[in-house]
Specification:
Strand order of the largest sheet: 9-10-8-7-6-5-4-1-11
Helix content: 25-40%
CATH topology of the largest domain: TIM Barrel
Number of domains: 2
Number of strands: 16
Strand content: 15-25%
Shape: globular
Structural class: alpha/beta
CATH class of the largest domain: Alpha Beta
Distance between the termini: 28 Å
Largest sheet: 9 strands, mixed
Length: 384
Amino acid sequence: MLPLSLYIHIPWCIRKCPYCDFNSHVANQSGDDKIPEAAYIAALLEDLEQDLQWVQNRPLHSIFFGGGTPSLLSGDAIAQLLEGIKQLVELPATTEITLEANPGTFEADKFSAFYQGGINRLSIGVQSFNHEHLQQLGRIHSGDQAIAAIEGAHQAGFKQLNIDLMHGLPGQTHQQALKDLTIATQLNPSHLSWYQLTIEKNTEFHKFPPILPVEDKLWQIQETGFEHLAKNGFQPYEISAYSKPTSRCKHNINYWQFGDYLGIGAGAHSKITVTSEITGKPHILRCHKHKQPNAYLDQSKPYRAGQHVVPADELPIEFLMNAFRLREGVDSVLFEQRTGLPLAHIAEPLAVATKRGLIEASNSKLCPTQKGSQYLDDLLQLFI
């Protein structure tokens, strides 16, 4: 059976960051626009119950609370939700359960409650330890608060701990980027997500673009950063993911290997494989939930806003967009197992990509070369 993961979207933030294009909405901790915590937890469980047909007797491989800012919820709410999930779906003790958190004092004070409530992996959105860069990014925490939050996560009991860190920030020098990485590795996380700031549509940065480092400086930052991470025991396994041994993110690997996942919450997406009773071949179903929190909580509407079957001619690029993010690639057999198409279906672009040195020449693996990872967009274009 394909692994099944669960994604839970918490759509609220204290402030919308200028680079963020995720489905997030500003909410306060009090007043009329306070997060409707109890109603949202109840809706999430009802949403999952309506999607149980797609579970297909599978246990949950992983759970990921994303946002928004999931750490705005209380520890009691997280515990209640996880307990409710256990009543609906098999939840083994080995299930990875990740919660994204901001390092502000308000959220960090709840880390112990999250751990006691069932969260076993914490992902802290630091982005930078530099005061000036944090202000430019619209972050509401300081570098000192970030350090204190990470130390607090260790004290709360988290063994699996990710730090989100950006580079290529407005005006950032090579030395400043390396200092951010040095501080992060000294804090002994088990995992680092280190990625370049990109300007996305429908963001404040897209409307008012900041001046970012030029290509040569970005290359210098990346090369020095790769060396520093390797020296400190962080192994690269995805374009922007680095981990200590045995600490790779199971949830994201399931995405990249084209596994199945259910999405509950405002704006959440699902990808489910359904085997045809007639042909015995799989087809891929994608569905999404209402994006606006008020629409999602409107009891007169279904949670699901739409769904469609992915056309067969789109399956190769959907599979490879994920698989080629992994530095080790995937076994070739996964392509047929998870798309229902023979590998011969993409034989011609595979041959071209191999000739250009973008993928490794192997019948058993679909794996980008270092050049292929560097020019991933060019590689994927061959399969469109």
